[in-house]
Write a structure and sequence with these properties.
The chain is built from four helices and nine strands, in the order H-E-H-H-E-E-E-H-E-E-E-E-E. The chain is of the alpha+beta class. Strands 1, 2, 3, 4, 5, 6, 7, 8 and 9 form a nine-stranded mixed sheet that branches. Bound molecules: coenzyme A.
Length: 175
């Protein structure tokens, strides 16, 4: 059986939480992102939190989506931020991150999300349909290189009339 067939993506469950924390710590080499994931969940901001499970319930990957807001505000637009996302180091480069993003974006469509933003590797996310934020007249509240801040419109045209600064949940700090 290939890894892709054996791998399942499912929403996180309460018994997963300590393993998700450890996975983030190992993937990022520190606890900053693990703390952010825990704080967002505690604050009610974990709109979508999925795990990749291999074999007999081994959690090998995790992805989180939390609400973002535009300034100036556009109340009718629903946006989510993708991240943090992490795959256990020994399981990386086997398509698990790809499965997490693809499945996550499908859930976002089901949740009637208008757009998703990501602050991440400019070589990685365009393959999932993310475009540089400048294409949408959007900026990140963070002092990040513009090419690292990317956007995917899920409801076509939803961002056409809008511009502004995208703010993540306060648990991310800064911005
Ligand atoms: C980024 C991450 C989640 C990708 O998961 P993965 O399961 O290894 O990803 P996939 O197997 O689906 O895809 C592998 C591709 O990602 C690319 N990739 C991985 N890390 C990358 C990085 N730091 N910068 C650019 N590309 C990267 C690989 O080069 C590979 O590209 P290719 O398909 O063109 O060969 C994983 O590497 C990870 O946990 N990294 C540490 C934590 C992190 O940086 N999270 C993302 C924050 S935005």
């Amino acid at each position: 059986m290939t890894l892709n067939a054996a791998l399942r993506i499912r929403p996180e469950r309460p018994p997963d939480l300590s393993r998700i924390r450890e996975l983030n710590r190992l993937a990022f080499g520190g606890i900053e992102e693990a703390d952010i994931v825990d704080a967002i969940r505690s604050g009610g901001g974990a709109v979508l939190s999925l795990v990749a499970v291999a074999g007999d319930d081994l959690i090998v990957g995790h992805i989180l989506f939390s609400p973002v807001t535009l300034v100036p505000p556009v109340p009718e637009l629903r946006g989510l931020g993708l991240g943090p996302m992490a795959v256990l180091p020994s399981w990386q480069n086997r398509g698990i991150g790809t499965r997490l993003v693809e499945e996550g974006m499908r859930h976002c469509v089901d949740l009637a999300v208008d757009y998703v933003v990501v602050l991440g590797h400019p070589a990685y996310y365009p393959r999932f349909g993310f475009l540089p934020s400048v294409s949408f007249n959007l900026k990140s509240a963070y002092d990040a290189p513009p090419e690292a801040f990317m956007v995917r419109e899920l409801r076509e045209g939803s961002l056409r009339e809008h511009s502004g600064v995208v703010h993540y949940r306060p648990e991310f700090g800064g911005g």
